[in-house]
Amino acid sequence: MADALRAIKIQTKACQRYKKEIAYYKKEEEQQRSKIAKLQESGADGHDIDKQKEVLEETLQMIPECKNLLEQAVHELESLVAQHSDDEKIKESEELTAANELLEELRA
Q: pTM for the full model?
């Protein structure tokens, strides 16, 4: 039982981390777009603008990668929850409650 609870807790934390990373990269995308627009408006050097566009591209590449990692982590968490949902001791645990709440939030 302790191993199951530990696995559920670890997978829940992984899902939370990927969710935060996606939010971070989306925020970074907005900041980079704004920065590029300001550089273009101010007539900045083309090299500086190109460098900022490269940074934006790197950020844009990370979003789908994090989404894939989140999908995998969610799938693993759903599997763990389904596998151990019949165990009475696990049903009443904080770990399972947190996992179910996170899964509901991610489905919304």
A: 0.85
